[in-house]
Amino acid sequence: MTSDPLLALRPWEAPEVTSWGRLPMNAVDRRPGALPLDGDWRFQLLSAPDAPVGGAWSTARVPGVWTMQDTDDLPQYTNVRMPYAEFPPLSPAYRNPTGVYERTVDVPAEWAGRRIVLQVGAAESVLLVHVDGRPVGVSKDSHLAADFDLTPHVRPGERATVRLTVVKWSDASHIEDQDQWWHGGITRSVLLYATDPLHLADVTVRAAFSGELRVDCRVRDTGGALPEGWYVTGELDGGLIAQDTEFDRANVEDDRVSEFLGEVRLHTVVSDVRTWNAETPELYDLTVRLHRADGTVADTSCHRVGFRDVEIVGRNLLVNGERVFIRGVNRHDFHPLTGRAVSYDDMRADLVLLKRFGFNAIRTAHYPNDPGLLDIADDLGFYVVDEANIESHDHAHEIADDPRYLNAFVDRVSRMVLRDKNHPSVIIWSLGNESDYGANHDAAAGWARRHDPSRPIQYEGAAKLDWAATDDASDIACPMYAPLEDCVAHALSGEQTRPLIQCEYSHAMGNSNGTLADHWAAIESTPGLQGGFIWEFWDHGILQRVNDGRPVGRGGAGLYDNGVAAPGHRWAYGGDFGETIHDGAFIADGVVFPDRTPKPVMYEHREIAAPVRIECFKHEGIVLGNHQHFRGLDWLAGEWELSLAEGDTLTAPAELPDLRPGETAVVPLPFEVPRDGGEAWLTLRVTTARDEAWAPRGTVVCLPQVRLREASPLRWENRSGTVEVDADGLLVHPLLSAAPTLSLWRAPTDNDELGGMALRWRAWGLDALVRKAVSVREESGGRVSVVAEYAGTVGVVRHRQVLTPVEGGIRIDEEAELPEQFDDVARVGSVFETVPGLDLLEWFGQGPWESYPDRSGGAPVGHHRVPVDELFTPYLRPQESGGRHGVRHFTLSAPDATGLAIALDEPRQVSVTHYRSEDLTAVTHHDQLTPRAGCVVHLDAAHRGLGTASCGPDTFPSHLVTPGVHRWSWTLRVL
Ligand code: GAL
Ligand code: MG
Fold first, then answer.
1. Does 345 lie in the same domain as 459?
2. Which atom of ligand 1 is nearest to the CA of 503?
3. CATH number, domain at 920?
4. How far is it, in rounded angstroms, from Cα 247 to Cα 245?
5. 189 and 121 within one domain
6. Which of ligand 1's atoms lies nearest the C-alpha of 178?
């Protein structure tokens, strides 16, 4: 039996114990003036918390998880499943990695007489603190800070040894079962700070849209009774604010308030207040000072204040009275080199990127993110759903009503509220994620409602059974992955009682986010729908060395670029660290790669969120609309571009009209559209007119487009020359290394795999169709007609190709007849391969980034030019990628401008890569892929939408490739 009382308590298997010796949470910022304790600490990894400390010390970096440093306990990824079989509250008794961190601290001599506090930013999952061998405290909740009063334990001017023992598995792990990597360690900064014994214990700022400011201060003295004569003052952007004497009087008269309870209020009304919203996030600087009787300052706390209101009126969530659209994303604290420790610069880069792509909201999935994130959100302008660190996914039902976990639920929600209540960006509290719904949630909701009546609460688990209910722990109906038609039906039902904002939708796993634009078309046109949060921001790929399978760790900066890991490295996902229990690539489901490179969906989103749009093209000109909630267009600059299918791109400066939110205006057509040139598209290239906090001047904001003239039908050249085919009817051409054949298969996307489609396609044999020429006929004028059958396991597709020699090339007319049993296939089209060296694609169509039939709204039609290597999108698990939608014609050329020119009868889905579908299907990671020397070209008559079936709805029926006859025609010429 141990003599250490903290160990004797065995807090890792006692859910009732949420902390011991820990100070109450508060919103006083203690970072300025603190002594940082980050850096290398002495470190030992024990096999279990009660194993003896006594081995050799190594070092570990703080903040940092040991699972990404030099230990044998590596990251493990599970989604729902706990990584061990023990039921709550237990964890594996003998295999419970426990990190012991130790270092000496020289306590500054000038802190004599002061109150000295240790802050551990975050430790997962149980933290035990000792100083000089004496027990100080315990804390749980892996994503909030723990403060401990060290005044009795240390002496200013002397050296103390601080030991932080971090137990990986505990009762708390069962309520931290979020879908992410499991790690162990200290993920946020550790510091020591000092205050006067007389100090600000908490500051609560309420700043309303009306300009009214109330600052409630809680003053305490470590001695107990407060000294006579103390008072508090505030300074808001230089203007002084005094204590609210009415509040003081009322407190004195309240006989429940004992004499030493230091509760005071600062109060003022700011006239002509600059209010805060996500578009114009105006902030004021507030300094709160606690004075001793003689006027000297005992304590100070600084805050950035945003004046704004949040309320729910009927089924609308209003910010400053406006029904704002929530263009959100779910964000984890993640980094490919550190696992979970994120720097201020990293977080700022995350939010800057989101701003540039039109996002205005974040759900801190599924725990309070690093506190720095909220400072940045206040500053750049985001609406935040702040979520408590509660997810008991694997044991949800057992835990939601388990009284042993009651403390933990209330503790986690209340401490989050206490920490984050002063941030204008936080507009909603979330009780957590995927934990069923029980009495523990109601208890936590009750606390939050009473303590902070100024914000609504949401919890998916409460609202999910009945979106129309009003009597549960959620003020918002916040489903996840609800089919769009269900959301619309609910909004139209007349039964809707509260706002409908999906807490997760449009699952971004691999090549995904099909139908995102349809969601937004419905949201913007259906009262009652207000938006949602895409799942999720990050692909959580960890940078891994291929040779020894270890995470690279902090030294890996520079070992990746543009979403791709350097040779000898890869982005690891579940199973890559030798885990036997894991959930594979389900961890790679973000809108950015692990290095924050945006995926193509980001461009789609940017366009969906466009602040200024082309409503239509009328006789008098172009109708422009301002789609923001609060801002005019003066921060934007524009340029017109006119793209002609058979011509150039012309540009002209654009004068943006002065429009208030919701207004439209007609502006004259900036060009004489030339008579020739075929199909014509007008694009308004909108950029920032001046530097914004999140974008330098000239950053693209959106590219709205309108078609001015339709395409004329493809003109066929006169017949001339001959076409050569082999005995099987396959085209022989000097620039093709493989002749065009029929393709019905794509390397399954994650949606295709997890949605079950790929399984069917394989069962039908679509991945290995067997071609058999049925007839090869030479007709008059050199034309060749080839009929072939492509046999799968359950059906045969009849395919006819008519090859006609035309001036300068070949015209190819194709027809494929899909039998009834192939009722949903990936594509119908041609595939062929070119000789090596044709490595530049230039096309007229949608681009320049990747697009698919149900994710093509953000890729404007125009002339685009991209090297073939850069067309391919390296989704973590290789799959169909690199497609371009709506391609009318293209060339593939070598540096000497020789090559191929292809024109299509209609805008078609085209892809050009160095990989065959089977190359992509055969591997699990990019380091296993070898590009082919030539190009693999697909021209599709029809291509299936992407949907989001890896977690959520599939694509819409209109984007399916159905049985029956498909026809397409194209010409092939040599440049
Ligand atoms: C949700 C969950 C997320 C994540 C997502 C799928 O059910 O809340 O944490 O697991 O699905 O990627
Ligand atoms: Mg989950």
1. yes
2. 8
3. 2.70.98.10
4. 5
5. yes
6. 9
Taking the centre of ligand 1 as the mean of its atom positions, its distance from the CA of residue 477, in whole angstroms, is 17
Q: Which atom of ligand 1 is nearest to the CA of 80?
A: 10
- Please give the residue that has the higher pLDDT: either 307 or 32: 307
Please state, for a pLDDT cut of 90, what percent of the chain lies above it: 93
Identify whether residues 421 and 272 lie together within a single domain.
no
Q: In this structure, which residue's CA is closest to atom 10 in ligand 1?
A: 179
pLDDT in tens, 134-146: 999 999 999 999 9
Which of 81, 179, 364, 754 should be mutated for ligand 1, with most atoms under 8 A from CB? 179
Model-wide pTM > 0.90: yes
Ligand 1 binding pocket (C-beta < 6 A) is 79, 178-179, 366, 433-434, 480, 504, 507, 535, 586, 589, 951
Per the prediction, the chain carries an average pLDDT of 96
897 and 777 both lie in a single domain: yes
List, in sequence order, every beta strand (DSSP E) within 341-389: 361-363, 383-387
- Which of 278, 305, 332 terminates a domain? The answer is 305
Angle subtended by helix axes 406-420 and 439-451, to nearest 10:
30
Which of the ligands is closest to the CA of residue 393?
2
Shared-domain flag, residues 767 and 802: yes
Residue 871 lies inside a defined structural domain of this protein:
yes
**Residue 564, domain member (yes or no):** no
CA distance 206 to 100: 41
Average confidence (pLDDT) over 278-290: 98
* Ligand number nearest to the C-alpha of 536: 1
Distance of CA 279 to the CA centre of its chain: 20
3-class secondary-structure state, position 35? strand
* CATH at residue 436: 3.20.20.80
The angle subtended at Cα 570 by Cα 567 and Cα 571, nearest 5°, is 150
Region for 740 from its dihedrals, namely left if φ exceeds 0, alpha if ψ lies in -120 to 50, beta otherwise = beta
Q: Looking at the predicted structure, is the pLDDT value of residue 259 above 70?
A: no
pLDDT tens digits, one per residue of 895-952: 999 999 999 999 999 999 999 999 999 999 999 999 999 999 999 999 999 999 999 9
Query: What's the domain range around 353?
Result: 310-540+588-603
Whether residue 581 is contained in a domain is answered as no
The residue contributing the CA closest to ligand 1 atom 2 is 179
pLDDT at 103: 98
* Ligand 1 nearest-atom number relative to CA 536: 12
Residue 1: the pLDDT is: 52
Instruction: Tell me, yes or no, whether 253 and 282 share the same domain.
Output: yes
Beta bridge partners of residue 968, listed in sequence order: 814
Q: How many domains does the chain contain in total?
A: 5
